[in-house]
Write a structure and sequence with these properties.
Length: about 325
């Protein structure tokens, strides 16, 4: 097996994370003319963050002042096998200049990048960037269907973009009607909906309702050998082994928790942020933190490698 080359890569963001930077590889390099996220090899004795800071100074002439770890992707090129550790860079000093690239361009999240060709390893990164920082889980069982629909309408009007219809204990007909209403309302606001899917009957319901995808409970995740055929598939995870399985199935994202004690399980201490950060460091998919979260924890979650936070009560 060929040696794996460790690389630090930067998703440099501006305009509140709505735009990101791509750079064009110059003549004389492998894949010349391809567009990529800036970055480079980790040198001996460097951490991934140290390599990121050095590479962006050399390539773009900037000094990074704020960056958070994100996902890791392994990719086999004809000339090398690389493992890219991505960081989201949100602040820097200096003016960006293409010192070691032939050009750079700003692209908008969730839209066509506007430049081509894109380096093959970066396709999944563009899809992951379209995921929002907040993942809302419904609680119609506890709050009542009408109260939950009213809460959802307020949240969607305020910018919520990703919803899971949970509520697995509702009577099947009530759950199906509730899910249909959630899908219709969310789509009217440009948001996506996943249906919690403990079995294949839920898959059928999700297709019938026009849901955007499935959220797999841990028990079902552990039975799968292939990704369900939906545009968007996520899973609940509680261990490094389950995160690794979600990676092998090439899911779009996972939820990991509980990070903190929750109202429903106050006796459980939770993973804590250090363990969360350790478990997600090598994940190929974005991971949301779940359990005792509030919106004030978003930046803490991102500092520990999370895509964002998943909430049942706080959204």
């Amino acid at each position: 097996m060929s040696k794996v080359v460790e690389v630090s890569a930067a998703v440099i963001e501006r305009n509140g994370g709505q735009e990101f930077l791509l750079a064009c590889r110059p003549e004389g390099k492998v894949y010349a003319g391809y567009w990529e996220f800036p970055g480079g090899k980790v040198e001996a004795g460097e951490s991934h963050r140290q390599a990121l800071d050095r590479e962006l100074q050399e390539e773009l002439g900037i000094t990074v002042t704020a960056a958070t770890p994100w996902i890791s992707r392994r990719f086999v090129y004809p000339h090398a096998t690389v493992r890219l550790k991505f960081f989201r860079v949100t602040a820097w000093e200096g003016e960006i200049a293409p010192i070691e690239h032939s050009a750079f361009a700003w692209a908008r999240i969730g839209m066509d990048a506007g430049v081509e060709p894109i380096l093959p390893a970066n396709g999944p990164i563009l899809r992951a960037l379209a995921l929002p920082p907040l993942y809302a889980l419904t609680q119609a069982e506890e709050r009542g269907v009408e109260a939950e629909m009213a809460r959802l309408e307020r949240a969607l009007a305020g910018g919520l973009k990703l919803v899971q219809v949970r509520d697995k204990q509702l009577p099947p007909a009530v759950r199906a009607d509730f899910a249909a209403r959630v899908v219709a309302l969310a789509h009217a606001h440009g948001a996506r909906v996943l249906l919690n899917a403990p079995d294949e009957a839920s898959d059928t319901l999700a297709r019938r309702l026009g849901a955007d995808g499935l959220h797999l409970p841990t028990a079902r995740l552990q039975t799968l050998t292939a990704r369900p055929d939906f545009p968007l598939v996520a899973a609940s995870c509680h261990s490094p082994e389950e995160l690794a399985l979600a990676d092998r199935l090439e899911l779009d994202f996972s939820v990991l928790g509980p990070v903190r004690p929750t109202p429903s399980h106050p006796e459980q201490t939770g993973l804590g942020w250090d363990v969360f950060g350790e478990w997600v460091f090598d994940c190929a998919q974005p991971v949301y933190a779940l359990g005792g979260m509030t919106t004030t924890e978003l930046e803490t979650a991102r500092r520990h490698g999370a895509q964002g936070i998943a909430l049942m009560r706080g959204w």
